[in-house]
Amino acid sequence: MMRMAKMVLVGALLTVLVGCESMEERMSLRKPTAQVTGMRFQDADVYGATVVFDVQIQNYYPVELPLMRFSYAVSSQNKRFMAGAQEVAVKIPAGGSQAVSLPVRIDYLSTLRLLGGMRPGATIPYEAQLDLTIDTPRLGAIALPLGRSGEVTLPSLSGVDVDKLLNSGR
Q: Could you tell me if 62 and 129 lie in one domain?
């Protein structure tokens, strides 16, 4: 009976120790987190526009982590009007958080055509899906899928007859 009690005690201790090790391992393997805080247009002209995705990234690792690339897809009223991917070289500080602006250049007139009937200056609803690729020391390259819904105002083009450009097929 004593022998059985000792075996149960040893088994319980081993379970606790393995549980602690797994807990420690899980804590050190905690993936970074991120959140899209906004999307905006800037620098629009007849040749294109820059769309900027603002993202807040939290790094739980004790070393800085490189953000290597991101992909994006944006739609409005179930119409995808832009998508792509871009390489970046951003370092997220060890054990910290960083706001990152991720700009992409798009063909603005093609975007307006895809939106069908939307004109510069209009405010439209949007749904953005982003995937950030971050290189971690233990898990390797991981993807962080992010999403955000909101409204964005399409930039105006001063001194330009947008209807004429849109109908010209440029």
A: yes
Q: Are residues 116 and 49 in the same domain?
A: yes
Which CATH number fits the domain that encloses residue 70? Answer: 2.60.40.1820
Cα–Cα distances (Å) from 156 to 68, 128, 139, in that order, read 32, 21, 44
Residue 27: the pLDDT is 47
Q: 66 and 13 share a domain? A: no
8 A C-beta contact, residue 88 and residue 70: yes
The answer to whether the predicted template modeling score (pTM) of the entire model surpasses 0.70 is: yes
Q: Which of 27, 51, 22 shows the shortest CA–CA distance to 39?
A: 51
Q: Domain span at residue 12?
A: 1-29
DSSP 139-166: TEEEEEEEEEEEEEEPPP-TT--HHHHH
